[in-house]
Design goal:
By secondary structure, this protein is mainly alpha-helical. It contains nine helices and no strands. Helix 3 packs across helix 5, helix 5 packs parallel to helix 8 and helix 6 crosses helix 8. The N and C termini lie far apart (63 Å).
């Protein structure tokens, strides 16, 4: 075939016949999320809350704990954006600083939940001797309502931010541990795991 004819044939190759480059799953997922309106709306609201919490010392001029009985029940205005409560405290300052405290507590609880829940669930799912002991303890904690158990733990430890974090961590860790245990039980019975054990692989 002449070179000119070969070039002409190549130019007429349908683009659909050429296989597309396979994209990374993370990139595909990110693209889908960026085209999801509810995700963008929720992400935007979360970003606003994060910015308010981070910039709390800058965007507030009044302490959230400052009392001013002369200014109680003041309506929203230039001095008090959200008005004041029955003790004259600025509601704007209390909302912004409260967002910062809520984010700190929530992040700490999620971290405790992820670390200890994953460790307990993985140990219960992988080591058969620990499974029954750890899961019965988990069942005992999950038998109580979450809020009631958190209040009871806080009453024992004391009213402080650190104790609230510990109490919420104790409440929600068993739920994560049970989910992780179920996943580990499935993975433990996979063929490649069984093959590795048969080949003499240890823990």
């Amino acid at each position: 075939m002449a070179p000119d004819t070969a070039i002409a044939v190549a130019d007429h190759v349908d683009a659909e016949d050429i296989p597309e480059k396979r994209q990374h799953p993370a990139r595909v997922t990110l693209r889908r999320l960026l085209h999801h309106r509810l995700f963008l709306l929720g992400g935007g609201l979360c970003l606003i809350v994060v910015l308010l919490a981070v910039l709390a010392p800058v965007i507030t001029t009044v302490s959230p704990y400052k009392l001013s009985m002369r200014n109680k029940f003041t309506p929203p205005g230039t001095d008090f954006v959200f008005g004041t409560d029955n003790f004259g405290r600025s509601l704007w300052s209390r909302v912004v600083w409260g967002a910062q405290l809520s984010m700190f507590i929530g992040g700490a609880v999620v971290l405790i939940n992820a670390v200890f829940g994953t460790a307990i669930g993985a140990a219960a799912g992988y080591f058969r001797r620990l499974d029954n002991l750890l899961m019965r303890f988990n069942d005992a904690l999950m038998a109580f309502p979450a809020v009631l158990l958190a209040i009871a733990v806080t009453a024992v430890l004391g009213p402080s931010v650190n104790d609230v974090i510990i109490a919420l961590g104790i409440v929600y860790t068993p739920r994560t541990a049970r989910i992780v245990r179920a996943s580990v039980l499935v993975l433990r019975e996979m063929e490649y795991v069984q093959a590795a054990v048969a080949a003499g692989a240890g823990h």
